[in-house]
Amino acid sequence: MSKRVALINGITGQDGYYLAELLLAKGYEVHGIVRRVALQDPAHRLERIAHLLDRVRLHGASLESFPSIYRVLAEVRPDECYHLAAQSFVSYSFDDEFSTLNTNVNGTHYMLAAIKDVVPNCRFYFAGSSEMFGKIAELPQTETTRFHPRSAYGISKVAGFDLTRNYREAYGLFACSGILFNHESPRRGFEFVTRKISFGVARIRAGITDCLHLGNLEAKRDWGHAGEYVEAMWRMLQQDVPDDFVVATGDTHSVAEFAQLAFEIAGLDHRDHLRLDVELYRPAEVHLLVGNAQKARSVLGWQHRTSFEQLVRQMVTADCQSLGCPLGIPSVSAVSSYRAVPGGLTGPGIQELV
Ligand code: GDD
Questions:
Q1: What lines the ligand 1 site, CB under 6 Å?
Q2: C or N terminus of the chain, fewer CB within 10 Å?
Q3: Is 70 a catalytic residue?
Q4: Can 153 be counted among the known catalytic residues?
Q5: Is 80 a catalytic residue?
Q6: Which atom of ligand 1 lies at the shortest distance from residue 90's CA?
Q7: Is 2 exposed, middle or buried (0-12, 13-18, 19+ CB in 10 A)?
Q8: What is the fold of 5-183+223-247?
Q9: Side-chain-facing half-sphere of 270: CA atoms under 13 Å
Q10: Ligand 1 center to residue 90 CA distance, Å?
């Protein structure tokens, strides 16, 4: 039997990395779409998937160019297509709403339109997001919770979700959306808060810097492990009928809790190093996200496994290891600046930049 062919758009990102590994392990022929510049500068731009480069085939294309997407689909003729590529940093979408909307909305539309023309039997996965819930209408959020996006990014994901459903209903495409809540790992980009914290804490532990600046500490997120969330993506495309699914842990924690635990794991006191920076607040915040993945559990047989504590520990451990200050050995800064101060995250250091 010939190998099933999968195409991952966004293979160089955190999720692309885990998904490519999963599909290769399942025996798929894996192709990835990357920007042309990535092919010209592999050492830098393909670093995350360097260990997979001899096992995947990469194709240069751009989310802004329908012909380039069309050409890749015609060449690869995938059985399954995972559309993960996007401008995915919510904060940046406030700086450039136009490029976020252009890239994310048109990119998804181009993928769907090309699949409909070239490979109408290809199964399509769209990376929806819990950011679509925005100003939440209910707790916890499910597949039927009303959307109220709070950023150009969130709006672009609602548009992609609607496009995906419409191609399913109007043209019979096997098209699914995963409504994934925040998912993290040691492979997470440095701009997202969890990695900013784990790497920041590791830098402090290594004595490279002394403080970590964060924005809204009160925001709450439902954080899971990215390696487990890509399994849900794959399961969606193995069903008899296409549908949309929430993928979440059902557990929510504040940014403050994440940071406090990360410092604790590294043997540091957050009150000595954490600084609040109001410049990092967003014009419109998504205050609280927590998902109900009951449908994914019963239909897909999917279940998260990594707890919040395990996730934070894994990320901090990996970053400390990479900076040469592994856990278990006293840190440079713990030795030089430890202060035992009772109290919570409202200590004096936290207020410094307000
Ligand atoms: N990035 C960042 N940096 N966020 C901060 C900071 C900071 O210094 N300080 C506080 N935060 C808060 C943000 O205001 C937000 O409430 C929360 O931390 C999480 O921010 P991010 O890690 O940037 O993730 P996100 O929730 O905005 O979006 C992520 O999850 C979505 C799924 O819900 C991204 O991965 C999206 O692409 C994804 O769709």
A1: 88, 90-91, 129-131, 181-182, 191-194, 196, 214-216, 219, 221, 255, 280, 282, 285
A2: N
A3: no
A4: yes
A5: no
A6: 27
A7: exposed
A8: Rossmann fold (3.40.50)
A9: 26
A10: 7
- State how far Cα 75 lies from the chain centre: 28
Task: Please tell me if the domain spanning 5-183+223-247 has the same topology as the one spanning 189-222+252-297+307-335.
Answer: no
Domain chopping of the chain, boundaries: 5-183+223-247, 189-222+252-297+307-335
Q: What is the CATH number of domain 189-222+252-297+307-335?
A: 3.90.25.10
Distance from residue 197's CA to the centre of ligand 1 (Å): 12
Q: Which residue has a Cα nearest atom 27 of ligand 1?
A: 90
Q: At what angle do helices 193-205 and 308-322 cross, to 10 degrees?
A: 50
Q: Could you tell me the distance, in angstroms and rounded to a whole number, from the CA of residue 74 to the centre of ligand 1?
A: 36
Closest by CA to 223, choosing from 246, 250, 205, is 250
From first to last of its 354 residues, the chain has per-residue pLDDT tens of 789 999 999 999 999 999 999 999 999 999 999 998 888 888 777 888 899 999 999 999 999 999 999 999 999 999 999 999 999 999 999 999 999 999 999 999 999 999 999 999 999 999 999 999 999 999 999 999 999 999 999 999 999 999 999 999 999 999 999 999 999 999 999 999 999 999 999 999 999 999 999 999 999 999 999 999 999 999 999 999 999 999 999 999 999 999 999 999 999 999 999 999 999 999 999 999 999 999 999 999 999 999 999 999 999 999 999 999 999 876 665 444 333 333 334 433 333 332
Query: What is the phi-psi region of residue 6: left when phi exceeds 0, alpha when psi lies from -120 to 50, beta otherwise?
Result: beta
**Which residue's CA is the closest to the ligand 1 atom numbered 12?**
216
